[in-house]
Amino acid sequence: MARKIVEEKLITNPEAKAILEQVKEDELGEFQRRTLEFARKFSKIPDKEAVKLTEDLHAKLQLERSDAIQIVNCLPGTGQERRAVLTVKGRFVSREQLSGILEIMKRYR
What pLDDT is attached to residue 57? Predict the structure, then answer.
C-alpha cells in the first residue's frame, strides 16, 4: 500500500515517543519500533514539557525551531555542550544566549 505524507513537522524525541506509544507495538513497522526504542531511551523530559520548552527557547531567545528542538533533545548541562549544539551551522552564539538557555532549561529539569 502506498504511503502518503500528510504533514511534515520537526518534533522532539519526547513528542515522537508519545505519538508512537499511541499505536500498539505489534502494529508498528520495524523502523517505528526502533524509533520508539530510541525515543524511550533518550527522552529526558515528558512530551508536554518538551513542547513548552521548545516554544520558550524559540520565542524568548529567538532560536530557530530546529535549534530549540536539538537543545530539548540533548538538554546540555554545560556552556560548552550548549555551544556545541548551537554552533553546528558555524554561527556565533553569545554568552547571553547560552545563559538564557540555561535559565529556561532549569524550569523544566
Answer: 94
